[in-house]
Amino acid sequence: MRRVILYIAASLDGYIAGENGGVDWLDSEAAPDDAGNGYEAFLREIDTIVMGYNTYRQVTEELSPGKWVYAGKKTYVLTHRGIANLPEIQFVCQPAERLIETLQQEDGKGIWICGGAKIIHPLLQQNLIDEFRITIIPILLGRGIPLFGALDCRIPLQLISTQKNGNLLELTYRRRAQEKEGK
């Protein structure tokens, strides 16, 4: 079965976006460089990306306007908007957990959960994320959209690795094997 990997940046106080959903704090000084944090190696591990519409909009309008930075990867954008599909981007209207369960049954590499919180939360509730790669950005936002909201369950994890890249720290955790079976 394909691995589902949450790979995301968060502020030191645990937010993935500012109070109004902005990601301007992910500036070029804080952005991880490919050589130091293994981003390019990570991209070789996956062939599918899942994100919500807000994350898609941020990528295409704020972080990398005019250029699709995930070329060569099949991307699914979960949205209720009726948007026409693009060659590598499929806009789908279904629960995140149903999409992930379908994708896990298909052949392929890892599945990257790129964001945002409305996608992450139901996957956590259904225990569908296998690996957590969190890059901690050295900033305290004070408030915003939390990486993990309140959960109805515990999800025990095991620390796999830590990687320091300048002022950034990438933490990699895996869900404990016995917990997935008890889902």
Automatic annotation (TrEMBL):
What domain of life does the UniProt record list for this protein's source? Bacteria
Q: Which residues form the Bacterial bifunctional deaminase-reductase C-terminal domain?
A: 3-167
**Which Pfam families would you find in this protein's record?**
RibD_C
User: What's the protein here called?
Assistant: Dihydrofolate reductase family protein
Which species expresses this protein natively?
Anaeromassilibacillus senegalensis
